[in-house]
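Could you help me review a protein record that somebody else here produced? This is what I was given.
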Amino acid sequence: MTAASARLVRRAHRVHRVDQGMRIANEEIFGPVLSVLKWKDEEEMFRQVNAVDYGLTGSIWTTSLATPIAPQAASNRASSGSTA
């Protein structure tokens, strides 16, 4: 790892409270940026995720073990280049 790439890792940004109406939720951001969107309804989540024209990668996280999202099923329903 070079000093320049280490600096990029150290300066990565997480953007919280993103909603679907924001540019950061609908356009590709090239750089060390993580946009965090929250949903309470699984169907609404997939509707909004799949409404975005772009999507190189995506990941779905849950804190609800009472209604877990099956990883393979979620990956199949989310339209992106790569889903983790």
Summary: Residues 42-51 form the longest helix (10 residues). The chain has two domains: 1-38, 41-84.
